[in-house]
Amino acid sequence: RTVYVNGEYLPEERATVSIFDRGFLFADAVYEVTSVLGGKLIDFDGHAARLDRSLGELGMSMPMEAEALRDVHHRLVAENGIEDGLIYLQVTRGAADRDFAFPEAGTAQTVVLFTQSKPGLADSPAAKMGLKVISIPDARWGRRDIKTVQLLYPSMGKMMAKAAGADDAWMVEDGHVTEGTSNNAYIVTGRKIVTRQLGQEILHGITRAAVLRMAREAQMEVEERSFTIEEAQAADEAFITSASSFVTPVVEIDGAKVGDGTPGKIAARLREIYLEESKRTAS
Ligand code: PLP
User: Fold this and answer.
1) Which residue has its alpha carbon closest to ligand 1 atom 10?
2) Same structural domain for residues 98 and 25?
3) What's the pLDDT score for residue 205?
4) What is the pLDDT of residues 207-218, one digit of tens each?
5) If you average pLDDT over residues 264-281, what whole number do you get?
6) Whole-angstrom distance between the N-terminal and C-terminal Cα of the chain?
7) What is the dihedral of CA 115, 119, 120, 125, to 10 degrees?
8) Which of 18, 85, 179, 263 could bridge to 118 as Cys pair (CB 3.0-4.6 Å)?
9) What is the DSSP letter of 10?
10) How far does the centroid of ligand 1 lie from the alpha carbon of residue 46, in Å?
11) What is the ipTM metric for this complex?
12) Considering 74, 90, 119, which residue would you say is the last residue of a domain?
């Protein structure tokens, strides 16, 4: 596999990053994951805009213009022959002598991109079967709107879910669901789609923004507010969204079936609409 590191395209075995990199020592880094379907990027503009925002919130700037970044994505897709898969991008504050204070302005950022081939990404078994989730306390830091690489707690959450025989975890703060370990969380009550309002408590999902826009365009009712696990267990449907899972139904929460315990109609419809429109506008 060819990967991108600081301006160079290299075989992955030859790609290296300093042990003093602040991404490694302090998780002082942000990332994006963009999906690829049919060799094209899904919502690249959304991911580039969020990258710019995440970097800005941490006092960093874009390593290159969005169009140049798109070219890097395209070159990796082409060189690695990616039909369906993901592109991971990480930008760190760079390598400097270990110190909590940020290094001097002008320290070169580290920029890494790599591809992951995922044949059949858009027809995963989870889309048909639905996911089982458990609830866990949200023990992450308070700026979840910045897409940093501090993913240890979400990683532990996935392991807790696995240990409990489930697929994923929904995190709960002050009695209300924030989001999934790597996705945004939704319920459907009546015909209304409910998902948590934006704020510093959750990541502003690029898929979330697209799905809510498409739902409104299809005359579906959307309400942005927080909800409890009890409300979710009593809902007609539940689902998640993310760049890598698109729209995926949730059929069980803490052992309680959602609806009749099978994927819901509205989630299925939204997945269809999302995939159709995203492929049509892919770049
Ligand atoms: N929330 C969290 C915590 C995430 O890690 C992710 C994606 O990785 C999402 C939500 C979904 O965001 P997006 O739709 O931009 O992939």
Assistant:
1) 183
2) yes
3) 98
4) 999 999 999 999
5) 97
6) 22
7) -90
8) 85
9) E
10) 12
11) 0.99
12) 119
